[in-house]
Amino acid sequence: xxxxxxxxxLAVMGRNLARNFARNGFTVAIHNRSFAKTQSxxxxxxxEGTFVASESVEDFVASLARPRKVVVMxxxxxxxxxxxxxxxxxLDEGDIVVDAGNAHFPDTVRREAALRAKGLHFVxxxxxxxxxxxxxxxxxxxxxxxxxxxxxxxxxxxxxAKVDGVPCCTYVGPGGAGHFVKMVHNGIEYADMQLIAEAxxxxxxxxxxxxxEIGQIFAEWNxxxxxxxxxxxxxxxxxxxxxxxxAAFVDVVxxxxxxxxxxxxTVQNALDLGVPITGIAxxxxxxxLSGSVPxxxxxxxxxxxHTTPWAVEDRDAFVEDVRLxxxxxxxxxxxQGFDQIAAASEQFGWDIDRGAMARIWRxxxxxxxxxxxxxTEAYERNADLPLLLADEYFTGAVGNGVQAWRRVxxxxxxxxxxxxxxxxxxxxxxxxRAERLPAALIQAQRDFFGAHTYRRTDREGTFHxxxxxxxxxxDA
Length: 476
Ligand code: NBP
Fold this sequence. Notes:
Number of helices: 21
Pathway: Carbohydrate degradation; pentose phosphate pathway; D-ribulose 5-phosphate from D-glucose 6-phosphate (oxidative stage): step 3/3
Bound molecules: nicotinamide 8-bromo-adenine dinucleotide phosphate
Binding site for substrate: 102, 128-130, 185-186, 190, 260, 287, 446, 452
Binding site for NADP(+): 9-14, 32-34, 74-76, 102
Domain 6-phosphogluconate dehydrogenase C-terminal: 178-468
GO biological process, one term: pentose-phosphate shunt
Strand order of the largest sheet: 3-2-1-4-5-6-7
């Protein structure tokens, strides 16, 4: 065969990815379970490059140059396993199977081990940027063997987004590292969206501002440190008018947020690793609360608020406070996400370069933002940085906004505006910087009821107090 890369699974994502390869000059083998999608791609876009279409998997595999590089872009889960099972007997040692769907990383770990045992490379790769990114340049996060990246890297980097000429694609690490990093990316996306939503609510309730007015504030924010895709689309959405009613579009949308599950995966994994990702967790639970209809119905008009209406006097000062609080909370959410990547990298032996992850998220993906440059720089200063927040740049940037952050969170509490992500991020900030935490009391309680032992501040060792008898301290 002659095709340099193949794509099987030609629904929206696979179709656009195949077109992206072709538009970048690669000869692309294309295949889909049902031929209609393959035919439609040829009919609509066959002139964009060189496509080699096959009806059968056998012909598809035969059309590929060796080592064969097959991108699988089908529904995550059982469909991905079915396609892999069909491909494997047709492949030869050294061939590369790339799963570009949204697999859960433990599935990728399992598939990679199974294919490695057969002498094949399996590359689980995160692809972010949705339909448009797939076509015009996504952020690409490939895992698997370093050897497979020697073959794939140049092709994937060519079709990825570019920022300042630098590709938004790099080798992430072995096994499930690529899909893991994509999962955390999505978790951070949840936190970022929730923080923006809380900022919008604060401006709405504090100022009584209209959606369009708040949209203009976001547009203004997008010219500074907060510049990002999510802030940009927020400004756009808030200024959009519903055609049917003439009302602000956001005011006619039902306030129940849905989710496909990557936020949940991120939080579940953080619980397994014991990493506090409070921003992502609050964001995931805030979506769940919004969808808790029976609870919301039971509470509405029933639970007393004991608040007074919020009438902010200095509008400009309040807007600036919310902006600073948003930035600080956002830094906390990212700092926590990068802690989670570090913990998994350590646990699974993936050796992930966190600065490189921030670099490939600067373009193509949903969380693309100006401030990711700052994260890359922080990890360049110190690759083993234990806490992103403690990097000199972020200490300064967040430190500048701490008083504003406190005013916003306390104001929200006083006036009954729910800001779970703002408030928990501030609590995290105060917790992580505390000289002494009440965890000492927890340890004492644990020793009291369960003889779980404790350590002391003044000498080495592990101790237990005989609480129920004479309360002497013993070496444990
Ligand atoms: P879908 O997730 O809707 O999957 C449809 C594709 O899967 C079709 O090509 C379908 O073939 C194929 N397929 C199924 Br379903 N079962 C199959 C089986 N047993 N054997 C072979 N093929 C099978 O497509 P999508 O929306 O393009 O998404 C593709 C992947 O990309 C998913 O994993 C998704 O989660 C991920 N995704 C990522 C982003 C992003 O921003 N990164 C966005 C959207 C989706 P058929 O045509 O014959 O039915």
